[in-house]
Amino acid sequence: NWTMAGFRDLEIAKIREQVGTGRVICGLSGGVDSSVAAVLIHEAIGDQLTCIFVDHGMLRAGEAEEVVSTFRGRFNIRLIHRDASDLFLDALKDVTDPEIKRKTIGRLFIEVFEQEAAKIGGADFLAQGTLYPDVIESVSFTGGPSVTIKSHHNVGGLPERMNMKLVEPLRELFKDEVRDLGRELDIPESIVGRHPFPGPGLAIRIPGAIDRDKLALLRKVDTIYLEEIRRAGLYDAIWQAFAVLLPVRTVGVMGDGRTYDQACALRAVTSTDGMTAEFYPFDMAFLNRVASRIVNEVRGINRVTYDITSKPPGTIEWE
Ligand code: XMP
To answer: What are the GMPS ATP-PPase domain coordinates in residue numbering (predicted)?
Structure first.
């Protein structure tokens, strides 16, 4: 009979057998998947693993610091932290098309990752926190024609180019199973219970061209929204919640003055695997509280909307 403890021991044995005395590198994003993959592999092969954290400058507030302190401090995992935000933001300066955004980020991610890997003399294996739904969705859209809906930048490309074999211990798991495995590995709840975060980060939550100012604005909105969600005790009931900075200015009133500022959208969905999703039915008092805080506390935002689209026909992210 199948248990998570049994799965963990089996995967550790498999990793040891596959890797032998080889060296493994793993891209760490701070998300649940790559974190669990890294800790599992570290448990199997210790310092034969080096994690590379490419900071593209489009993470949420405080996230980069948390990744570094958790993995170096708590788990004692070898970790390279490369701040590549200038490189990414320069390349994205005039990019408005969502697919080009994703591809640009994916390409640069690979470039920077390769550079960092080369600096430590390369490796024999590349570890990825690929989940079962990633494997499916990158290929086709379930129930529909076989077309790519969105190109996930964490799947494919890299291993062939770098001539590395793949280590993907989570390939058969769904998200909730990955979380259970993480708990089995004593990864802190703040990471294990964390909402999924897309590889391209906040870039795909800012329709149109992105820059540092827009990112800073979005981080403020996002922080307030998530603070209120946690305070209301709703974080764990929601699959994913985030703010989107809309590329539109609207008129408002503030005191005796007229404002002409940006609008934002809030998104929150329930889901079991990210492949389908329903919007979360917040009560009106909650939405009212969040909207008031955002408009009052974030200069530059004067309108808040709530996205009530399910997936399908919407996707969870806006791009
Ligand atoms: P969509 O927007 O396609 O998202 O409904 C489904 C789930 O996948 C996440 N997502 C990504 N994750 N790299 C990732 O690692 C990506 O490029 C990417 N794009 C979307 C999204 O946040 C949601 O959980």
So the answer is: 2-194
